[in-house]
Structures are given as structure tokens and as C-alpha cells.
Amino acid sequence: MNAYPSIEDMAEVSNMSKNRFQMAFKKIYGATYYKYFQMLKFNRALLLLNQIFKKQKIK
User: Fold this and answer.
1) Which of 20, 21, 52, 54 is most buried (most C-beta within 10 Å)?
2) Cα R_g (the chain), whole angstroms
3) In sequence order, what DSSP letters do the residues of 4-37 get, joined into one string?
4) 43, containing H or E segment
5) Element housing 1 (H / E)
6) Phi and psi (nearest 5°) for 4?
7) In this structure, what is the dihedral angle of CA atoms 31, 5, 39, 58, given to the nearest 10 degrees?
8) Is pLDDT at 52 greater than 90 in this prediction?
9) What is the DSSP letter of 59?
């Protein structure tokens, strides 16, 4: 299960074609739609790992 809406869904909601949405997204965020959410997932994982390691250091 994917936690994020597909490009097709986002394009439809934005009333744009898929290609137009992809171009606009990259221009605004500096990354493709999938790369942007990949970075979000990676940053969230780093945050969670840091929290786990901080708890282990306290013990």
C-alpha cells in the first residue's frame, strides 16, 4: 500500500495532465514527485532512528 497519492491522482485533482503536473511539481519543489516523497520517507526514517539511538544512550 502506498501512503502517497499517485501522480495520476494528483494531476487529476490539480486539473492538469500528468506531464504538466510533473513539470510543475519539479519546478516548484526541485525534485520529481517520486523523488520528493522518497526523500520525505528517508528523512522520516532518519528521524526515527535518531530517536531510537538517543533512547538507547540514556539507558
Assistant:
1) 21
2) 16
3) S--HHHHHHHTTS-HHHHHHHHHHHHSS-HHHHH
4) helix 33-58
5) none
6) -115, 150
7) 160
8) no
9) -
**What is the amino acid identity at position 56?**
Q
The pLDDT, as a whole number, for residue 11 is 96
Among the listed residues 14, 8, 3, 11, the one whose alpha carbon sits nearest the alpha carbon of residue 37: 3
Cα 13 → chain centroid: 17
* One-letter identity of residue 31: A
Contact 11, 17 (CB under 8 A): yes
Q: Match 530517536 to its residue by C-alpha cell.
A: 51
The string of pLDDT tens digits covering residues 21-45 is 999 999 999 999 999 989 999 999 9
**What residue type is 29 in one-letter code?**
Y
Residue type, 21: F
User: Do 54 and 43 form a contact (C-beta atoms < 8 A)?
Assistant: no
